[in-house]
Write a structure and sequence with these properties.
Layout (H helix, E strand, L loop, with lengths): L8 E3 L2 H6 L2 H17 L7 E3 L1 H9 L11 E5 L6 E2 L2 E2 L1 H10 L11 E4 L7 H12 L8 E2 L16 E5 L5 H9 L3 E3 L1 H7 L11 H6 L12 E4 L6 H13 L18 E4 L5 E2 L7 E2 L1 H16 L6 E2 L5 H13 L8 E6 L2 H10 L3 E5 L17 E3 L2 H14 L1
Parallel strand pairs: 3-6, 3-15, 6-7, 8-9, 8-10, 10-11, 11-14, 15-16, 16-17
Antiparallel strand pairs: 1-2, 4-5, 12-13
Helix pairs in contact: 2-3, 4-13, 9-10
This protein binds SN-glycerol-3-phosphate (G3P) and magnesium ion.
């Protein structure tokens, strides 16, 4: 008897439903889901989705079998959120993991995004209201959060921070421990002729910190988040790097000074917002900068890359996940993402299981993904159910 896996199921009316002890049901569902779908329930005429089965399935006494070494990392853009809106499947998936089951069983999860631009606390507040589940900073990693692990090297030195609105990221960087943080708007306010094509808005002028930059030896440039003014930022990055940190001092002796470190926090060329087609990301900005710098100097500039899929970011994430799995030596970690280049490549390299969803950047019409996931799913809820089933079987 051929069955269509995706078809919806017919289930007894709710009251009848509660008569069936979940464990028994879950047992059966788990092993013979096709059989149940085709044979017993079709007769009853009520339709529900597989997900509802999953939800019911997981609220049953079957949960006890769920290994306690299980934890999830969720990408945000294209998986939980598109633009300003939460995706319907996101609320379902997270609320279930957040103990929204009659046993109040919580399955640890973190959010791991290449996004950024505001402080972790502020972003968690916003995400909690968008997703309807409390997201705490100790379960949240954005592109620049990993910089907390390198701040010691630069704490007391002048650094240039790029990206975000106004001086929002100055405050975030100071929160990480950077003590001398400047922005490209500060430099433009100091000397407007450095980039004559942008007049500071009143709001921007209110956010600047002015000083005599001919006396400021920058030790590093950090691209925290997607720059708002690529042209201004690329001009000033070239100025700072070519003068080995002190803008305007293009003297031979500059080469005595240590080259300026350059750090990018997000390599994504594209990402999925609420616009139909994917948008350019910080990775596109990096390519633009390197193209200009190479045209000016003949070579691209060496830099450090953080963000998914880098090892540093996945190690940082694994450390955070393990804090939610005390005493577990071999955790079973799942990464659910929409971008094969960042989410899947990084998770595979970290030895995690990876699930690629079709609700974001990845479009199966364009052929197989550049990095093979452990599994592909329509959306995050289906991905979570599949993972739970795997864990049940293991
Ligand atoms: O700017 C954010 C974008 O690059 C991707 O974000 O959440 O999909 O990792 P996310
Ligand atoms: Mg994404």
């Amino acid at each position: 008897m051929a069955c269509d896996r995706q078809s919806s199921l017919k289930l007894p009316s709710y009251s009848k439903q509660s008569e069936i002890v979940p464990w028994q049901v879950s047992g059966m569902i788990h092993r013979n889901i096709d059989v149940i779908r085709c044979c017993s329930f079709l007769n009853h005429g009520k339709t529900v989705t597989a997900k509802q089965i999953g939800t019911r399935y997981l609220t049953g006494s079957g949960n006890a079998a769920l290994p306690s070494r299980l934890a999830f990392a969720f990408d945000i853009d294209g998986v939980l959120i598109r633009g300003k809106n939460a995706l319907p499947a996101a609320k379902e998936a997270l609320s279930m993991l957040d103990g929204n089951n009659k046993f109040g069983l919580k399955i640890p999860f973190i959010l791991l995004t290449n996004g950024g631009g505001v402080g972790e606390e502020e972003r968690c507040r916003k995400l909690s209201s968008q997703l309807g589940v409390q997201i705490h900073p100790e379960q949240f990693i954005q592109a620049h959060t990993v910089l907390k692990s390198v701040v010691n090297k630069y704490a007391d030195q002048p650094v240039l921070v790029l990206g975000g609105k106004g001086d929002t990221l100055r405050t975030v960087a100071e929160g990480y421990g950077f003590q001398q943080v400047y922005t490209t708007l500060d430099i433009l306010a100091w000397n407007a002729s450095i980039w004559p094509f942008h007049d500071l808005t009143q709001q921007e002028r209110a956010s600047v910190k002015t000083t005599d930059f001919s006396k400021i030896p920058f030790s590093a440039i950090f691209v925290f988040h997607d720059p708002r003014n690529w042209a201004l930022d690329i001009q000033i990055m070239c100025d700072v790097i070519q003068s080995r940190g002190v803008i305007g001092s293009y003297r031979e002796s500059n080469h005595m000074r240590k080259p300026v470190d350059l750090v990018f926090c997000n390599p994504d060329l594209i990402w999925q917002s609420d616009f139909e087609a994917p948008r350019m990301g910080q990775g596109a900005f990096k390519i633009a900068f390197q193209a200009v710098f190479q045209a000016l100097t003949g070579s691209t500039y060496p830099h450090t890359q953080f963000g998914k899929p880098t090892e540093a970011t996945y190690k940082f994430a694994e450390m955070m996940l393990k804090r939610h799995l005390p005493g577990v030596s071999t955790p079973s970690l799942y990464m659910i993402g929409d971008n094969p280049e960042s989410d899947i490549a990084g998770a595979n390299a970290a030895g995690w299981k990876s699930i690629l969803v079709r609700s974001g950047v990845y479009d199966s019409r364009h052929g197989p993904p550049s990095h093979q996931p452990t599994h592909e799913a329509e959306d995050v809820a289906e991905a979570v159910y599949w993972a739970l089933e795997q864990e049940m079987r293991s």
